[in-house]
Amino acid sequence: MTSEAVAPLAIPTDSVLLSAGKTGMLSRTGTGASAVHRWTRLADGVTTALPAGSYWGSAGTDLVVSQKGAVFTLTDMSGAGGPVVIDTSAFNTAAAPYVVDRVVGESLLMTATVGGAEEFHLVSRGENGQVTDRKVDLAVGSRLMFSYSSGPDSLAVSYGEPMANGYYRARLSTVAVATGAVAASHDFLPEANHTAIAVTPTHLTWVLRPYGTDPQLQVLSRATGAPVSTTPLIRRETNGLTVHHVGDWVTLVKPGGGTATSPHPYAPLTARPLNGGAEVRLLDHAGSVANSPDGSLLVLGGALAHG
User: Fold this and answer.
1) Three-state SS for 305?
2) pLDDT digit string, tens, across residues 194-248
3) In the 8-state DSSP scheme, what is residue 306?
4) pTM of the predicted model, to two decimals?
5) Residue 228: what are its φ and ψ, rounded to 5°?
6) I want to staple 108 with a disulfide (CB 3.0 to 4.6 A). Which of 1, 92, 123, 265 is the partner?
7) Which residue pairs, CB below 8 angstroms and at least 24 apart, start in 85-93?
8) Local structure of 53: helix, strand or coil
């Protein structure tokens, strides 16, 4: 692997990358009501601040979602298509509220509170203009945790699945975006390091035993369900670690190395080949990473040699 850099893009250094598409990227500075969202074109670096409000990016696309009450608008920032409006007011009510968790392609992954219980739902607008609401097929009574996506065709969710004895077991499942059906499910206790999970159409990755004596990064083939790579990690250093895929490589970084007050072994952005070869150091630090539609990564970070 080689690291190919393009001209720096003019966005605030304290920004967080939210998504990256073919023509631009969505970033955010600040949090809460004071957050400022920006769209930056990759071709010329022109950055536009978006009106105040809530925004979500769809990983690997140029889609940006905005919200006004129960109505969500999907805007293609490339200008290739008109806006798509998803009106959820028919079912998104005070009695059964729906909250956006993330955007996957043109579908909103939402946490719905139905009868006092939380469920994952995939909400989108069909070809006939009607809004479709697809419940993710998890066991009744599951306790939702987190979701993961690297593009419009990849989705995984983590959750606690109820057991007959009243306890829960942690599960990590891949989901078919078009239907909400669970494609494959894995028991991943005690591997509950939720930042270091990545899913692509071909691979699913997470950390085994992150707080044990021998933590390992495991990459599964989604086609076979079998591990294609299992490599050691440094003991007690996996907290906050994030992982991403680039072809037959997996990258690791603990974000924030550029402002850290002490060194960390995973502050540099590094890439490991799935065939077990030597890892490659790409950047000395990275604040945030976003998946691009061509399989590459867009990284907000730097190399000390280049300032």
Assistant:
1) helix
2) 999 999 999 999 999 988 899 999 999 999 999 999 999 999 999 999 999 999 9
3) G
4) 0.93
5) -105, -15
6) 123
7) 85/125, 86/123, 86/124, 86/125, 86/131, 87/131, 88/123, 88/131, 90/131, 91/133
8) coil
